[in-house]
UniProtKB/TrEMBL annotation:
Lineage of source species: Bacteria, Bacillati, Actinomycetota, Actinomycetes, Streptosporangiales
Listed GO biological process terms: 3,4-dihydroxybenzoate catabolic process
Zinc recorded as keyword: no
The protein's Enzyme Commission number: 1.13.11.3
Key words, A-Z: Dioxygenase, Oxidoreductase
Organism expressing this protein natively: Actinomadura barringtoniae
Domain Intradiol ring-cleavage dioxygenases: 67-95
Name listed for the protein in its UniProt record: Protocatechuate 3,4-dioxygenase subunit beta
Length: 221
């Protein structure tokens, strides 16, 4: 099984948000939704949207990294013009969000959010800071492995998939119920980026490669 179940009791918030009733099939057809929902194009993207290290007046703290890869369909074909959004914690493991109040320092030069469009060959590229692990109170001594959230949009907000990218060799993998909620070991491994020396830039940033394969990369419920 590639995708996590809607309810995974070890991940406690799923107990509250998992559907308790059968789905309701809307009468509004998908074509009507696509005609009225927002659409995206190059004009909405800023020059620094894909570089999370240059969105402020100063340099953020932490290990600079490059994350790149492709968005592919189920047959391995590139999906060009796909809007990707990312959000993440800073190097200390804290989000720039009012809801995150755990005692780790905020970074005034790191907002932790970015976006880009895939190119004609389905490639994306982000420059960012490697996020830190953080506590999340799901269970005793619960810590999330370092990760970056990805949203993959279709032609409208109603066509949105959300997943997480992890880093190789993280010792927290066995203890994290979100990561472990994906039943198949090989599917879990598809959420882990690969260190890539060819992407790494000398004296500047380490590189990671991670492809998103629609229908194959585990997505959140």
């Amino acid at each position: 099984m590639t995708h996590p179940p809607y309810m995974y009791p070890e991940y406690k918030s799923t107990v509250l948000r998992a559907p308790a009733q059968p789905p309701v099939i809307p009468k509004l057809g998908p074509d009507s939704v696509e005609l009225t929902a927002p659409v995206f194009g190059h004009a909405e993207l800023g020059a620094l949207d894909a570089d999370l290290t240059r969105q402020s007046t100063g340099e953020p703290l932490g290990e600079r990294i490059i994350v790149t890869g492709r968005v592919l369909d189920a047959h391995g074909r590139p999906v060009p013009g796909t809007l990707l959004e990312v959000w993440q914690a800073n190097a200390s493991g804290r989000y720039a969000h009012a809801g995150d109040q755990h005692p780790a320092p905020l970074d005034p030069h790191f907002a932790g959010a970015g976006r880009c469009l895939t190119d004609d060959r389905g490639y994306y590229r982000f420059v960012t800071i490697k996020p830190g692990a953080y506590p999340w109170r799901n269970h005793h001594n619960a810590w999330r492995p370092a990760h970056i959230h990805f949203s993959v949009f279709g032609r409208a907000f109603t066509q949105r998939l959300v997943t997480q990218m992890y880093f190789p060799g993280d010792p927290l993998f066995p203890y994290d119920p979100i990561f472990q909620s994906v039943p198949d070991r090989h599917a879990r491994e598809r959420m882990i980026a690969r260190f890539d020396m060819d992407v790494t830039e000398p004296e500047w940033a380490l590189g990671y490669t991670w492809d998103i394969v629609l229908g194959d990369t585990p997505m959140e419920a």
